[in-house]
Design goal:
The chain is of the alpha+beta class and 381 residues long. It has 2 domains: 217 residues, no CATH class; 125 residues, no CATH class. It is built from 13 helices and 16 strands. Strand 13 and strand 14 form a beta hairpin. It is globular. The relative contact order is 0.16. It binds iron/sulfur cluster (2 copies). The site of one iron/sulfur cluster has 12 residues, from helix 10.
Length: 381
């Protein structure tokens, strides 16, 4: 039996056996796969579903898939999907009410809590899951769907062997090394003809999966090679963000002219909130059938960039693009600390890559920091 905390070597040729062990252990596997010109998360039935030999090139408003010179399984950076699409689905039926005489019978939606292995979770994504855990299960009201799904998730982390031009997890203290919060941790070693994985058992559940998988104990050199890979990644971050006093900086600059500047560029398309692994805003809608015998309540992702999102008594509270962008960024980087005790940003860079006009929150923060305005008394809408 593999011990928790121990590190072993998994040969590339035994990776399929590792996937088999997960399936034999009762886990359905979801992980990275190539679809529609991007690396997105989907079902993994065999290793050929993985993005073997693919990587991505990212910049503000740009994402391109490219071939790698090798056959890496995890040689890419985070794409447009995050694990929240499984834990907090974009659209979800919450309950159904059926007419029953003069009343209604309400049936809660069954929760799909099948054991699921998330394969390829990056350090920033582990941090994002921890944040969403607090949002959905850390308060007095627990979201039953999220909690049910989350209970049976096996997290298989993959250490980042490269950083995208849009990554800044080092600034946010969330990566690129995954130190905790995973059941199994993989580091892909691909150098000088070598193709192996250092695999670390983070929990007893993870260790159980490894029973029957051909492994050898990792040597000191193997562990050093794995650590050096992640250190190189940390030194190659594409972006940085100075987070010192950021909560106060944003609070004191609610009337900074930069909000007008960004509003001229922002399309209020909501992309940044959809791709963000921590954004959790949603709306609900009732969907009745035509003969009024049944109604369903659905929840779907919403965004603070939508005009209707802040509508109160028939009028939007945040009527301008300026106020909506400001709300998003000041919440994410500032007031999130008051609400949840941490930043709402894990530095994954998705909102930069997938913003159609390349708005970059690291640059917006830097611009405000370069010329902070005197503290204002009121806040213009
Ligand atoms: S705000 Fe942007 S960089 Fe930060 S976690 Fe969300 S998508 Fe990633
Ligand atoms: S910042 Fe970019 S991604 Fe976000 S709403 Fe504006 S245009 Fe869309």
């Amino acid at each position: 039996m593999v011990e928790v905390g121990s590190r072993s070597i998994l040969a590339r040729s035994d990776f399929a056996t590792f996937l088999d062990a997960l399936q034999r252990g009762g886990y359905q596997i979801v992980g990275p796969t190539v679809r529609d010109g991007a690396i997105v998360y989907g079902p993994i039935r065999s290793e050929t579903d993985l993005p073997i030999g693919w990587t991505d090139r990212q910049e503000g408003g740009t994402y391109r898939l490219e071939r790698r010179p090798d056959a890496a399984l995890f040689g890419y950076n985070v794409g447009p999907h995050s694990w929240k699409k499984y834990l907090f689905p974009p659209r979800e039926r919450l309950f159904t009410a059926d007419r029953d005489g003069s009343s209604f019978r309400v049936s809660a939606e069954p929760i799909d809590d099948r054991p699921t292995a998330y394969l390829g979770v990056r350090a920033c994504e582990l941090a994002a899951i921890r944040i969403q855990d607090r949002v959905f299960t850390g308060g007095p009201v627990v979201d039953p769907g999220y909690a049910g799904r989350r209970r049976n998730v096996l997290l298989i982390a993959v250490q980042c062997g490269q950083a995208a031009a849009t990554c800044f997890c080092v600034s946010m203290g969330t990566g690129p090394a995954a130190h905790e919060g995973f059941d199994l941790g993989l580091t892909e070693l691909l150098e000088r003809g070598r193709h192996e994985f250092v695999i670390e058992a983070g929990t007893s559940r993870g260790a159980e999966v490894l029973a029957g998988v051909p492994l050898r104990a990792a040597s000191r050199e193997d562990v050093t090679a794995a650590e050096q890979l992640v250190e190189r990644t940390a030194r190659s971050m594409g972006r940085t963000m100075d987070t010192a006093g950021i909560r106060e900086l944003l609070r004191d600059n609610l009337e900074h002219p930069r909000w007008d500047d960004v509003a001229k560029r922002c399309l209020s398309c909501t992309n940044c909130t959809m791709v963000c692994p921590t954004c959790f805003c949603s709306t609900t809608e009732e969907v009745p059938d035509l003969d009024a015998t049944r109604v369903e309540r659905w929840r779907r992702w919403d965004s603070c960039f939508n005009l209707a999102f802040s509508e109160l008594h028939g009028k939007s509270v945040r009527a301008s693009g300026r106020s909506r962008y400001r709300q998003w960024m000041t919440h994410k980087l500032g007031t999130w600390h008051d609400q949840f005790g941490s930043s709402g940003c894990v530095g994954c860079g998705r909102c930069i890559t997938w913003c159609p006009v390349g708005i970059d929150l690291t640059e917006e923060v830097a611009a405000i920091r370069r010329s902070p305005a005197p503290a204002a008394k009121g806040v213009a809408p």
